[in-house]
Amino acid sequence: MRQARLTLDPGFAVGDVDPRLFGSFVEHMGRCVYTGVFEPGHPTADEDGFRGDVLDLVRELGVTTVRYPGGNFVSGYRWEDGVGPRGERPSRFDLAWRQIESNEFGLNEFMRWSRKAGVTPMMAVNLGTRGVREAADLVEYCNFPGGTALSDLRAKHGHPEPHGISLWCLGNEMDGPWQMGHKTADEYGRLANETAKAMRIVDPGIELVACGSSNSGMSTFGAWEATVLEHTYENVDYVSLHAYYEERDGDLGSFLASSVDMDQFISAVVATCDHVGAKLRNRKRIRLSFDEWNVWYMSRFVGERNLAAERVPRLIEDNYHVADAVVVGSLLITLLRHADRVSVACQAQLANVIAPILTEPGGGSCRQTIFFPFADAARYARGRVLRVEPDSPRYETARFGDVPLLEAVATQDGDEVVLFAVNRSVEESLGLTANLRALPGLRVVEHVVLAEDDRSLTNTVAEPDRVRPRQVSGSSIEDGELTAELPALSWNMIRMSSV
Ligand code: AHR
Fold first, then answer.
1. Ligand 1 center to residue 25 CA distance, Å?
2. Which residues form the catalytic set?
3. Atom in ligand 1 nearest the alpha carbon of residue 96
4. 20 to 30 Å CA-CA from 382: which of 343, 372, 410, 452?
5. Which residue intervals define the domain Alpha-L-arabinofuranosidase C-terminal in the entry (predicted)?
C-alpha cells in the first residue's frame, strides 16, 4: 500500500470556517421548487405546502444558506409576480428554461421555507432585464421596517416584520451570452455599482456579491473580474465564482482531479481582486462567493427546448454515483483550504436539479451519494481550518499533469480536530500517517468512509440505501501519530478529540 504523510499544527491556520461555506441553491428550474421543496397535497406537506420529507433532509444535510430564485431564471424574473394573494399571481413563460412559471411559490414562501429549514437566505436581483429601481424596490419590500408603500405591502401580504435579508447577488452570470440581458463587463460593472449604491441607501447593512465569470473557461475570464471590480470595488463585498465538473470522454483520472481546477480558479480570482485593490489604492479585501458549484453532466443536457407543455419538467436530474461523491468531497476540501478568502459557497442545486436530494411527485425522496460528504463537512467542519500540506504519491492526468492521490484538509474547534480526506486512487487503498505532536491527547472518535467496490452505484427513490457511509475501525493514534487506511476511491472523515 502506498503511503501519504501530513502534519497538523494549530500554529498554522488558514482562517475561520464561515458556516456559509455550506450553502445551497434553490432556483425556479425543473423540479427544484415545484415537487422538490414545494408540493401542496404531498402526504408530508405542511400547511404551507412545503414537503416535510425534504425539510427533514435539508436539516440533515446541514445547509446553512440558500441562494434564490436563480440562476439564469432571475434574469427574466419580476419579483412582484410572486407576492400577494396566490389567485392573483400571473403565470409567465420563463425565458431562461422555457417553462411555465406559475408563481405559486415566491419570495414570502421562500422566506417561510427558509425559517423552517433553518437556513439564511441569499437573494439575487435581476440585472439582466431589469435594473436599479426594481432592485432597490425589492430591498425596500424585504428589509424596510414600514411606513413606505412597499414595506406596507409586505405587511399586507402577512409579513409585518422585515425579512432582514443581508446577503444579495447583483444579478447572475452576466458575462454569459446565454443570459437574458447579457452585458459587457463595463456595462455590467456600471449597472452593478449604481444598483449597489441604491440598494445600500435602502438598507446600509446588506452585503453584496458582484458577478464574476460564469466559469474559468470563459474567454473573458480574468478581464471580466478586473473590469467589474474597477467599477464596483468600493460598493461590493464579494465576487462570485461558478464551476461545474463532469467526467468527459471516459477520462476518470482528470475528473477525479477536478478540485485542482477549482483551486487554480480561486487563486486566480483572489489575485485579480488584489490586483484591482492595489491599482485603486484600496486596502479593502474582496472576498469570494463560490455560489454555484457541483458535479453536473452538462454534456448530457439536451439544451434549450420549449417546456411549456410540461407543467413541472424533469430538467438535469443527474443521478450521482460514488466517484461523483468523491469529487464533491474534494471540492468541499478545496473550498475549506481557501477559507481565508472564500466566505460563501452554494452547491447547485438543492432538490432534483443536479441535487443531493431527489424526490418523486406524490412519492418518496432520497439522499444522493453527493449528500454524504456535504453532510459530514457541514456538520463537523467547525472552528478554524488548519493548513495541511500533504506529501502524497501522485498520478498522471491528461488535463492537470501529475496530481496527488490524497486531497486533505483539517479543522479544529476546541478539543475536536477533524481530518477530511479523499483518496483519488481507483485501484488501491492509501496509507495515511499524520503527525499530531502539536495536538497532544487526541484519540480517534470515528472514521467515516464513503466508498463502494462498484463505483457506478447510485441511490434512487426506489432504492435509497444502496450507497451509505460506514464507520471503519483500524485508525488509531500512537505517540502523536495518526495511522489510517483510506480505501480506493473514497471520501473520509476522521474525527479526533482530546476529551
Ligand atoms: O444551476 C443551473 C444553472 O447553471 C444556473 O441557472 C446558472 O446560473 C448556471 O449556468
1. 10
2. 173, 292
3. 6
4. 452
5. 291-490
Residue among 333, 473, 354, 355 nearest 409 (CA): 333
Ligand 1 close to Cβ of residue 175 (< 6 A): no
- Model confidence band, residue 303 (pLDDT cutoffs 50, 70, 90): low
Q: Using a 6 Å cutoff on CB, does residue 109 contact ligand 1?
A: no
Which domains, and CATH codes, for the chain? 2-9+386-497 (2.60.40.1180), 18-380 (3.20.20.80)
Q: Measured in angstroms, how far is the CA atom of residue 96 from the centroid of ligand 1?
A: 10
Atom of ligand 1 at shortest range from CA of 348: 1
Which residue has the CA at smallest separation from atom 2 of ligand 1?
71
- When pLDDT is averaged across residues 137-164 and rounded to a whole number, the result is 98
- How far, in Å, from the CA of 318 to the mean position of ligand 1? 14
Give nearest CA residue, ligand 1 atom 3. Answer: 71
Residue type at 464 in one-letter notation: P
What does the pLDDT look like over 436-450, one tens digit per residue? 999 999 999 999 999
Percent of all residues in the chain with a pLDDT value above 90, rounded to a whole number: 97
pLDDT at 309 over 80: no
pLDDT tens across 322-373, in order?
Answer: 999 999 999 999 999 999 999 999 999 999 999 999 999 999 999 999 999 9
Cis upstream peptide for 349 (omega within 30°) = yes
Calculate how far, in angstroms, residue 293's C-alpha sits from the geometric centre of ligand 1: 9
Q: Does residue 285 surpass a pLDDT of 90?
A: yes
pLDDT in tens, 23-40: 999 999 999 999 999 999
8 A C-beta contact, residue 371 and residue 46: no
Q: Cα(97)–Cα(29) distance, rounded to whole angstroms?
A: 7
292 ligand 1 Cβ < 6 A: yes
Residue nearest to atom 1 of ligand 1 (CA): 348
How much distance in Å is there from the Cα of 413 to the middle of ligand 1?
A: 34
